[in-house]
Design a protein that fits this description.
Blueprint lengths: L4 H4 L5 H34 L8 H18 L1 H31 L2 H6 L8 H13 L5 H5 L5 H30 L7 H7 L5 H26 L6 H18 L6 H25 L13 H20 L6 H19 L1
Helix pairs in contact: 2-3, 2-10, 2-11, 3-10, 3-11, 4-8, 4-10, 6-12, 8-9, 10-11, 12-13, 12-14, 13-14
Length: 338
């Protein structure tokens, strides 16, 4: 978020920082909800529906506290001591087990041949598939800044992003189609609970814990560009807020939330990429103004085009046109500004 000052201006970068904070609070609450529901389903499956361990409030507070403490500890402590040493290997093993379990128990040929029901256009599905990883794009620098070489950071982030999204989105779709009942808010969790003695749910808990940490920590980093407070103090406040939202909110459709994220960040990164790589050629500017009106105008036009296409012409798709328009306007306005 601090790096966006080069493209949007010292004060202009406050707007994406605020928007990033809001989306991360939403994601942080969502991760806690997923962990809570998964733990409740596991407790009900193995200990009985009347067990005290099936209490959703208990799990909400427990996982909210865990994610908040990890965020306060910071990325160096968590990544070096947990993820790098054993967490990443457990996650890769979990993904491999989920893949084997799917091939062993599901008829993939039948799933592939199943016709669609027409409830969603290809373009809308494309926008949703882009919006999920796009929402994580503002977070990458919060962690990659600790890397040793830019080339290694870029290759690792790009390859990990691509493989992770392709692999795990595919698993999610396949598990839902193979095992879940339709029109069920917890369909994927219920599908995983019924597959493999509940082991997939345990693996989901492991995976969601590091994402909740990332959401809360990066929200604190974004807040740090707006408020002169320590990241640890901001992480504590944001973790409490995420926990409260998770306590009160159900796990429902996140379709509109994802589209809203895409409408904001797709054109934003069209502006930033054009400004950084083409107009400035990766060079630092001599001075940074308070507001870059050319960049803010190009961004606003991209957001407007996204919502126009999403509401009036959803069969076209909105993400890529909005990104390309914002980038083109940034190039034109940036040249005129010079």
């Amino acid at each position: 978020m601090a790096a966006l000052r080069l493209s949007l201006g010292q004060q202009g970068a406050a707007l994406p920082a605020l928007l990033n904070l809001l989306q991360l609070v939403g994601w942080g609450a969502f991760e806690i909800i997923v962990m809570r529901d998964a733990a409740s389903l596991l407790a009900g499956k193995f200990l009985g529906a009347d067990s005290a361990w099936g209490n959703a409030t208990l799990w909400t507070l427990l996982f909210g506290a865990l994610a908040t403490l990890l965020a306060i500890a910071g990325p160096l402590a968590f990544v070096r001591r947990v993820l790098r040493q054993w967490g990443i290997w457990l996650l890769l093993g979990a993904c491999a087990w989920l893949t084997w379990n799917l091939f062993a128990k599901a008829d993939l040929a039948m799933l592939w041949a199943r016709p669609g029901d027409g409830s969603m256009s290809f373009a809308l599905g494309f926008d949703l598939a882009i919006a999920m990883p796009l929402s994580w794009l503002p977070l990458i620098a919060d962690y990659s800044r600790f890397g040793k070489r830019a080339s290694g950071v870029f290759a690792g982030a790009a390859l990990g992003f691509f493989v992770g999204c392709l692999w795990l989105m595919g698993l999610g779709v396949a598990y839902t189609l193979a095992f879940a009942a339709p029109e069920e808010a917890n369909s994927l969790l219920l599908a995983l609970a019924g597959a493999g003695m509940g082991i997939p749910l345990l693996l989901i808990l492991l995976d969601e814990s590091e994402k909740a940490f990332a959401d809360i920590h990066s929200a604190a980093v974004s807040s740090g560009t707006l408020l002169p407070l320590k990241v640890e103090h901001l992480a504590l406040a944001i973790g409490v807020l995420c926990t409260l939202i998770a306590w009160l909110a159900p796990l429902a459709q996140y379709e509109h939330f994802l589209l809203l994220i895409g409408s904001v960040f797709a054109p934003l990164f069209g502006v930033v990429l054009m400004d950084h790589f083409v107009l400035r050629r990766r060079q630092l500017p001599a001075s940074v103004p308070a507001l870059r009106w050319d960049s803010l105008l190009a961004w606003a036009c991209g957001v407007a085009l996204f919502h126009l296409l999403a509401n009036l012409y959803p069969e076209i798709g909105a993400t890529l046109p909005a990104l390309l328009l914002a980038a083109a306007l940034q190039w034109l306005l940036g040249r005129l500004r010079r």
